[in-house]
From TrEMBL:
It holds the Pfam family ANTAR. Keywords: ATP-binding, Ligase, Magnesium, Metal-binding, NAD, Nucleotide-binding, Transcription, Transcription regulation. Mg(2+) binds at residues 38, 137. Pathway: Cofactor biosynthesis; NAD(+) biosynthesis; NAD(+) from deamido-NAD(+) (ammonia route): step 1/1. Homodimer. ATP binds at residues 32-39, 132, 161, 183. SUPFAM superfamilies: Adenine nucleotide alpha hydrolases-like, GAF domain-like. This is NH(3)-dependent NAD(+) synthetase. It comes from the Bacteria. The gene is nadE. Deamido-NAD(+) binds at residues 112, 145, 152, 231-232. The lineage of its organism: Bacteria, Pseudomonadati, Thermodesulfobacteriota, Syntrophobacteria, Syntrophobacterales.
Amino acid sequence: MAPRQPRHHVPQLVAWIAQSIRDAQAQGVVLGISGGIDSAVCAALAKKALGDNVLGLILPCHTLPEDVQDARSVCHHLAVAHEEIDLSDAFDQLARLLGSQNPKLLGNLKARLRMAVLYHRAAELGYLVMGTSNRSEWEVGYFTKYGDGAADIQPIVHLLKKDVQRLARALKLPKPILTKPPSAGLWPGQTDEEELGFTYKQLDSFLSGQHRSVPSSVRKRIEKLRALTAHKRRPPLRFFEETVEPYPEQRSSALEPSPADRSVEALTVISKAITSDQYLEDILRLIVMVTAQAMNSSVCSLWLLDEQERVLRLRATQAINPEYVKDRVLKVGEGVVGKVVVENKPHIAFNVLEDPYFKEKDLARHLGLVSLLSMPMRVKDRVIGVINCYTSYPHRFTQLEMNVLTAVANQAAVAIENTELMVKSKVIQEELEKRKIIEKAKDILISRLNLSGEDAYRWLQKKSMDTRKSMREVAEAVLLTLES
């Protein structure tokens, strides 16, 4: 697959933003404009998607004048309505109350103060808050939790920094924005790369799977950051009353579920969904979302087998990348998914880029997919589909994870089989009902028009062809007009 083309990706993102706002029944979006490339790209996409229903907030907080001017120029260039609210005094008062002089803590305080203002204004207008995080920063936790990481919609969180830069050029943003060194502006002179300890080029190479091009020391730092900041990318931990022990030293484990606890919860949620009256598509979507969370997967996808055409179709995924969620079809025996169907057994790839069976290597590079566990979905030893779990880092799947995905695959197969049986039963029932109506209409025609059984059937057939209506509709009309 060729690298993502901005001319194609811009319309995809614009359509997705517009649809997301409609689905949320919101009126528009509010976003912070910093004068950096990420917020400029998001503002440009929002403007294309929502027109005048976009409000940019410029929120200086002891910010350099040139950064404020850059933010203004972005708003003027895009013709985006904007407000400027100086938070310096409010920040100073809050900082004095808290008493901390740690630059990082104060920087996080700025980010959270700004997000509070964004949500306040959004609530006033009936808007959603648009985030401006990119994937490069998201993957290493380079954002403030409940600060710039908090948002209702994140249009570029699937894009690496280099992809955002390409998008910015395609959107014809001002040159000073394109060439400006990335900075969160948390304190004077702060730059992203200096604080991270590596360049965006190195980070993007690592996340694209090009590990060998990145120095070992940088690889280790990236992996360490990902591990230390994993909690920032997860939903808040939930309290599980049944795991609470009465001893103080055990309270931390009670408040932080183990992988086994998360797995049990996931299987419980899926079991309840299967026995509910939800539509199959909703159940499958829930399965991949819950499974991704339990398995700590960056992408979870579910493929179903079309036995007549001998192909597998992507039916559900929690991934947000438009390139992954588009309609995709694989032949039986093609790639890892096709192999799992043929062999009826799991497939594990420590690095999909080095796996000879994995075909979509360009897609994996773009999405940063590394390790894969692919599990067949079976009904009485008959494979009906495959469920995949990818990680965005090198990972050796444990026996617990294998067992969990096996259980999920089996439950998903049951849900699909039950739905198919219900559909088949309904089709059979409708067919029997149709035959009864046609037979009854035939009997009336035989009696009223003195026709033979064969002639009566042909009469109904001819009327069906002449009127372009179904045999059932013609038979019902006969019953309505001639039956007394």
